[in-house]
Design a protein that fits this description.
This protein is mainly alpha-helical and 506 residues long. 75% of the residues lie in helices and 0% in strands. It is built from 22 helices and no strands. The chain is globular, with a radius of gyration of 24 Å.
Length: 506
Amino acid sequence: MTPKKPIEPLSGGALALGAFAIGMANFMMVLDTTIANVAVPTMAGNLGVAPDQGTWVLTAFSISLAIGLPMTGWLVQRFGQVRLFLSAVVLFVLASVCCGLAPNLPVLLFFRVIQGAVCGPLAPLSQALLVAVFAPGRRNTALVIWSMTTFLGPVCGPILGGYITDSISWPWIFFINVPVGAFIFICLSRVLKGRDNPTRQLPVDIVGLLLLMVAVGSLQILLDKGQDLDWFASVPIRVLAAVAVVGFASLITWELTERHPILDLRLFKERNYLVGTLCVSVGFSGYFAALVLVPLWLQTEMGYTATWAGVATAPLGIAGVILAPFIGRLMRHADARLLASMAFICWVGASIWRMGFNTDLDIQYIGWNSVLMGAGTAFLFTPLVAISLSRLAPEKIPAALGLQNALRMTGGSFATSLGPAFWDHSARMHQVDLSEPTTVFNYWNQGAQTQMADLGLSAQASLESMGLAMDKQAHMLALNDFSLASTVLFIVVMAVIWFAKMPRKA
């Protein structure tokens, strides 16, 4: 049915309520991408499967989310932004309830696939609706609200998931979506009643949809299982890589020639959109790799619990939330390219700082490094999204945001797999270097073993203690290597930003 009125800017209490509800929807979606991570061992044990099988709970959600995100543009044209958004919220809540009630792993995986697919439109549409309900002069504030909810999700997810799993039970990591989703639906049904964008009948791009599922699905499985299967030494990984390459090549060829494509790849003809999407995707990938690796290092090598590792990295989100409101004001006066560059300057500084980490650090030192990383995130999304959308027609914004978010999420998945792989490979190389001097002919080695013997340790216990110490130092050096690589990546991306054409006022 054709909507009665277009989406118009709101004011007063309606604006505050609508913006809060839309932001909560984005937070709920981002939270669910990380909240189940720490609960996987518990879920696997309760459902009677091995922990490595339990990781499919994460993989199933990631695959369907990556497929659902880029379809947003087509779905908006067919059903409308408001109707699609509210439908996605309802379906997401229902799928969450079914996940919590799942009696076995196959049922849980089935509803996780549905949950990921139906929440795909939430991230891009939360951006688009926030932009629509704010007056033109205040739309940078809309992007700030979206950025704040995006910062908090990955930080709160592991902490909240661990607390719920330890204190209540794992199904409640899904059940908590029910009251949040009900609040969002009631609020937006009220403030956006009778409003939506015009819709039109569009044919379904079946071929494009199938190619998208094959390409993204094979790539996501490759990324999730590559580390476990020893990457390209494994035949299944090589097959998945071949399927992904052929799938993406076929998808790009088809979508560029299709009249009504699922993915509007022609958006990349606009230079600002190309530069903004490239920078936000690659930059977010480097940031997300650090977000994964630092807590992993703290837990596996520094003896931190999952909760304390989350506390050490929590300033990532806190710094972003504190600074984000000021970014909207700065956008009115400063070049968006300069503000976006500030994100990478902060990340370069944090990465160089992290290159000097050692195994004697306390949690406050790590927390201050997280503050600097978090300050960078505050400058990332708002300026780069403004650059990306600055020269696009309004009707293209939902499709543009859907595609950009899909690439950003895919980049995050890529970083989640490659970051630990790089870290592990670098650690093995450092272990070889550190173990070379540990021979019976080495003076320092003999002295160390003599000291441990004086403490009552046997020769075998002495060797094991030295091995553990070398492993800890090797992983510390590997984290330093990762930080160096991150520094180079961020500098390159910062240079790319300036290829965008941007007026002084974004």
